Amino acid sequence: MAQHKVSMPAGRIDVRQELEEAPLGGFHIRLGVLISMILLFDGYDLYNSAYIVHYVAGPWGLSPTRIGIMLSSGLAGFAAGSAVSGLLGDRFGRRSILLLGCWGSGVMSLAIALFAHSLASYIALRVTMGLALGLLMPLAITYINEIAPKRSSNVFTSLFFSLGWVSGSSSAGLIAAWLTPHYGWQSLYYVGGVALVFALAIQLWLPESPRFLASRGRWEEVKPLLYRLRPDRAAAYDAGQFATGGAISHRSPLGLLLSRDYRLRTLSFWAAGALSLFSAYGLSGWLPTIMLKRGENLSSSFAYGSLFAGMAVAGGLISGFIADRVGDRRRVISASYVLGAAMVALLAWATDRTTTLIAVAGAGAFVVGSQIVLNNLVAATYPTEMRGTGVGVFLGLSRIGAMFGPAVAGVLQQWSGGPGIMFAAIGAAVLMTAMLVLTVGPSQPHVVVTNAH
């Protein structure tokens, strides 16, 4: 690989080090809240399709296989949007692409409510909405990792990821139970359109990532952000000159993902992400329908979906807290996925409500919650100049797995006549994810890409 080390000149201020060593402050919290608002868009749409199956299956003539295709439809757009978001974010900046996704997804939510009158029209609109939503998560994860203080990075990123994404995903079930019986399934997407208010707030108050600005040498824009993140260092910033340490490479960020230094980790991440989201989306997409077949009423079936999503907060924070103290995220994430597989097995065998509640809560905590910390591990592995691309391609390929989750689950149920084989397939996928995470080696020295734009 064509790269060489860059030493930090005496008297220069290393922006990367300043951000990592910053004490957690009010400006961190404000930026974290704004990122949470972005992730709410993504989370809210995650389970919406699952909550409208009850209303559209009859009128649209849906078999289990066609239901699976409907549940997976938006994920095709998600995968494509995620795959290109990092490349765009590394070229044009995190902020502009995040804003494009926010405005686009809000508008498309309203379009679904107004114009989706058949399976074909719903799929077409949801794929388009997925393209916009796919831009959000990779760059939101990238952004929040680039501002997180090192000593609390796992808890900080897990907390604000959960605050937005899980709040959106868990609230969808509650809103569905409350609104759809009275106002129809379209009400879910009208509520999604209200998120355009959040898009305006983000437009007004979210600055560009200081690490991205530093990687482009835009020091006049970096300085005001550092003043706010580390006001105690204002005098040093006035007197010093800024620089960013690391190594320089003359390869594109996409090429570096499969270079010798990153190849094994990149391939392991891609496979682990695809299997993890295959499991998470397969469970989430079919959970309300399976609970209805087990005799639950509509409201309680939707509540199980919200519990599954909401418990990801607990799982992500627990895993993040332990990872910050243990220091080896790989082992923590792998152990969490093993617990997730155990909860999937318990859910398959559950016959009473108490056991079902425990299994659903545990699966949410240790399947979806583990994914949150896995996202942070991926972001921390890659340097600033290729981080957006690394996270974006990871989530794009992961969402191909997510796209197959509900569809494969539907085919398995139609073939076997019940959900047993589906649970077995999902449990096996979660265990394979745990094994793959352990193959990820320790991080290599970060590189700075000079010809990325």
Automatic annotation (TrEMBL):
Name the PROSITE patterns for this protein: MFS
MF annotations from Gene Ontology: carboxylic acid transmembrane transporter activity
Q: Which GO terms describe its cellular component?
A: plasma membrane
Entry keyword annotation includes Transmembrane:
yes
Q: How does the protein's chain sit in the membrane according to the entry?
A: Multi-pass membrane protein
Localization? Membrane
Q: Which residue windows are transmembrane per the record?
A: 27-47, 67-89, 96-117, 123-144, 156-181, 187-206, 267-287, 302-323, 332-351, 357-379, 391-415, 421-441
What region holds the Major facilitator superfamily (MFS) profile domain? 31-445
Mind listing the UniProt keywords for this protein, alphabetically?
A: Membrane, Sugar transport, Transmembrane, Transmembrane helix, Transport
**Predominant localisation class:** membrane
Domain of life of the organism encoding this protein: Bacteria
Task: Quote the Pfam families the UniProt record gives.
Answer: MFS_1
Spell out the SUPFAM superfamilies in the cross-references.
MFS general substrate transporter
Q: What is this protein called?
A: Glucose transporter, putative
